[in-house]
Each structure stands twice: as C-alpha cells, then as structure tokens.
Amino acid sequence: MAAKTYKICCLPGDGIGPEVIAEGKKVLAAVGAKADVEFIFQDHLIGGAAIDACGDPLPDETLAAAKAADAVFLASVGGPKWDSTDPNAPRPEQGLLRIRKGLGLYTNLRPVKIYDALASASTLRPEVIRGVDMVLVRELTGGIYFGRRERFYDEEGAGENGGRGQRAYDMMEYHEYEVVRIARQAFEAARKRKNKVTSVDKRNVLETSRMWREIVHRVHDEEYPDVELEDLLVDNTAMQLISRPADFDVVVTENMFGDILSDEAAQITGSLGMLASASLGDGVSLFEPSAGSAPDIAGLGVANPLAQILSAGMLLTYALDMTEEAGWIEAAVERVLNEGWRTRDIADESTPADHILGTSAMGDKVVAAL
Ligand code: NAD
Question: Is 235 labeled as catalytic in the residue annotation?
Fold first, then answer.
C-alpha cells in the first residue's frame, strides 16, 4: 500500500477531453508510483456528455463527487453538437460555470512559460522571451463582471449634453475580504516560485484600485513580508508584459484586468496546446487546460496532451503540496521537447516526420522521461 492516497475527481468532458485526460492520468499514476502515493481516479460526467446522458451539464452527482475529492482534474467541454439556437436548451459551458461556483473557486492561475524548444512559436523576438516563467493570478468572482448593471433610455435628456438616448452602466465593486483572499493566494503562489508578486491596478483613476493596493500592501506587510511586492498600473503592465516578460513571477489583479492580461500573456508563448490553468478557492481546487475541446480534431488521436499533463503538475503543487513532484513533470515535458518530440500543433517545417507523435505516444514519452 502506498504511504498516501488521494482521490482525484476526473471530468473528461467533450471533444478531445477524454483523449488528453487519459494522458494526464497516465503521468500522475507514474509520478505516484515513484513518490509512493496512490491516486484514485473517479470519472464523472460534465458538459455535452452529461447533457446527452441526463439532460444536465452538471449532474448533482458530479458536483457531489468533486466536493468530496482532493482535487478536480477537468479536460474541456463543448462542441457543435450542443450549439442550439434555442435559448432554453442546456449548454455544456453552464457545467463549467456551475462547478466553479459550486466549489467557490475565486482565483484563476494561468502559468506562462517559454520552453526554449518552442520559442519560435512566439510572435516576440527570442531575446525578449528567453526565461519567461510567470503565473497570472486573476480574481474570478467579483468586480465589474458581477456588479450591478443597467441600460435605459433617457427620456428627459438629463445627460450632460441634454441629449436623449440610451444610457448604460456597469458597476465595479470589491469587498475587503475578496481582495484579502486573492492577495493571500498570490503570495502563497509566489512562495512556491520565485517569491515575487506584481500587483496590478488602476490607482490613479479607480477607487476600487486605491482600496485594492492598500489591502494588498497590508496583507503583505502583516503576513508575507518575505515576498517581494511591486505595484504596476494596468496600462503600463500591458506594455511591460511584452517588453520585459521575463521579469515577472506572480502577477495578481482583479477580474476584468486579469481577463485581458491573461490572454495577452498567453499569446507570448504562441502555443495553445501548452497552456495549463488552475482555479482555487478555500476548498477543493480544479485543474484544466486553458484551451477548448478542439472538436475539429476530436477522436483522431492527434491532440496535444501537454497542457493537460502540465495541469496535472499544477494539481500536485497547489492541491497536494507536492511541489517537488510537480517539478518532475515540468522537467520531463521540457526534456521531451528538447529531444525534438512534437505533436502536430507544435511541429514546424524543421520537425522530422518520425518525431511527430500522437496523443498517447506523447504521454508515453513524458512518462519515460520522468
Ligand atoms: P479550442 O481551444 O477548442 O480550439 C482552437 C484551435 O486550437 C483548434 O484548431 C483546435 O484544434 C486547436 N487546439 C486546441 N487545443 C488543442 C490541443 N490540445 N492540441 C492540438 N490542438 C488544439 O477553441 P474553439 O474551437 O473556439 O472551441 C471549441 C469548443 O470548445 C467550443 O464548444 C467552446 O465553447 C469550447 N471551449 C471550452 C473551454 C473549456 O472547456 N474550458 C474553453 C474554450 C472553449
């Protein structure tokens, strides 16, 4: 019997999901064997597959299993089969939103790392991206996306120019506890990495940002004085991310800024099939690739499983505190890439045909490199 046992709730979902999650499990099992840890994988339905089985993209049984697990390992959901014009038809993506809500996941972590072997996929110059290894920490359940909003017709013409017409507003609101808990997640993540946090706001204009900065500094001074902290305005961050991306470690910001900056940061790598992500709350956390279900290549056995495998690495770090073992996965992926092995999506004209692998063969290479 292994020294420790962990229950992993697996949600293969749709499209390439079942193919890539199989490789993620394979790698986790191999790590477990080496670390004397047993992972018990339990598959459950989500998304389109769950709609087909029982008409609900997140069956109660799936949410209950997720809550009872040590971590949730998700692939992706969705596909043209469930794209209905009927607004009342259940949609696969509702499963994602509901599981995030059900688990109280208020933090999204997206690592952005440049693998030297794939540097040519980036649209930025090689000398700019060398050494990029950062994590974006985005607040996920507050701010302007969840604030009060309204749109109305101004009959009176009370607007500044006295003109009648439509008027709309979206309210950006944060509570102290929301900033405190996301700041803690960022500082904790930094302690597992290079110990530096960049907090992004728009303090020169927004009151929410002035409060954000004050609270982030208080949490830092009282609980994490060992972590280096810098502040950056969001517009400046957008520039710095592409001019000196290698200087960042952990970047923490509110929901909308994070939505925009995380896509900008992801584009630095240029390889969608390589991007992992984690969603954390105060209980069970969830790990998944950033990309979708790629229906165009589902069932062909050619999908890149590396984002799913790197998500398994994040699961070890953030859910099970197995940072060293997560490092094994990172190193194995790097080694496989350095040896020239590629899936179709990350191959280029210089890749020999016999080095282009299918989904399962790529998983096997990572296991062998562990
Ligand atoms: P997508 O990310 O699924 O695919 C975009 C392109 O990237 C496609 O050409 C696809 O083949 C390729 N790609 C993605 N992942 C790949 C991988 N692992 N290996 C090789 N190539 C890969 O985005 P899309 O086409 O806009 O969306 C398809 C479906 O996925 C939609 O139903 C969408 O709603 C859903 N979706 C789900 C999630 C999620 O589950 N978190 C996220 C985004 C989109």
Answer: yes
Known catalytic residue at 247: no
The predicted pLDDT at position 35 comes to 96
pLDDT of residue 160: 61
First to last CA, the chain: 22
Q: Using CB atoms within 10 Å of the CB of residue 127, give its burial: 0 to 12 exposed, 13 to 18 middle, 19+ buried.
A: exposed
Tokens standing for residue 113: 């790392």
Q: Which amino acid is at 6?
A: Y
Task: Let me know if 202 is a catalytic residue.
Answer: yes
Q: Where are the alpha helices (DSSP H) in the chain?
A: 17-35, 47-54, 60-68, 92-102, 126-129, 176-191, 207-223, 234-243, 255-269, 306-318, 323-338, 359-369
Q: Which of 60, 83, 263, 321 is catalytic?
A: 263
Ranges of residues in the chain with a pLDDT under 70 are 157-163
Ligand 1 pocket test: which of 98, 293, 342 has the largest number of ligand atoms within 8 Å of its C-beta? 293
pLDDT score at 327 = 96
pLDDT at 236: 98
- Alpha-carbon distance of 346 to 289, in angstroms, equals 16
Angstrom distance (rounded) from CA 231 to CA 201: 8
Q: pTM above 0.85?
A: yes
116 catalytic residue (yes or no): no
Calculate ∠ Cα 135-138-140, nearest 5°.
145
Q: Is the CB of 362 under 6 A from ligand 1?
A: no
Q: How many CB atoms lie within 10 A of CB 74?
A: 28
**What does the block give as tokens for 247?**
């200087």
Residue 125 burial (CB < 10 Å; 0-12/13-18/19+)?
Answer: exposed
Q: Are strands 37-43 and 228-233 parallel, antiparallel or unpaired?
A: unpaired
CA distance 72 to 249: 25
Structural domains for the chain: 1-107+272-370 (3.40.718.10), 123-268 (3.40.718.10)
- The label of the residue with tokens 């069970």 reads 284
